[in-house]
Amino acid sequence: MRRSTAIATIVIIAIVLAIITLFVATRETATPAISPNPSPNATANPSASVSSSALASTTVLSYTDSGFSPASVTVAAGGQLTVKNTSSKPMQFNSDPHPVHTDDPELNLGPIAPGASATATLTKKGTFGVHNHLDPTQKATVTIK
Question: Yes or no: is domain 42-144 CATH 3.40.50.1820?
C-alpha cells in the first residue's frame, strides 16, 4: 500500500511540474511585435494579462488575411486600442493618409508580426482612417470619443 501511495504522489508531482513548465515556457516564447520605430504610445505585448477593470477600456481590432475586422471601432478617449495580427503575414499599422501617416500619430503602431499585437493609449478625439502600410487598400476606421 505504501509503495502505491508513493508512486501516485510522484505521478501527481510530475504532472504539476509539467503544467508549470508548460505555462512558463509559453509565456517566455511569446512572439513580440517587430517595431523598429515604435510610437511612444505603443507597446508590443502579445501575451499580456489584463485586469477585468482594464478590459472595459481596451478595444481590439484584428488584422486577418482578408483585412481588418471589424472595419470600424470606437475607443473612449484615454482608452486603449490593441491591434492583433491574426493573419499569416506581417503587416504595418498606420494612420491615414498613406504614405505619410499624419492624421493621428498615436495610431502609428508600425510593423506587427503574425501572431503578435501592439497596443496604444488613444487621447486625440476624432474619426481617423487607418491602413496596412504594406497593402494600403486594407483599411479600417477608428473613432475616439
Answer: no
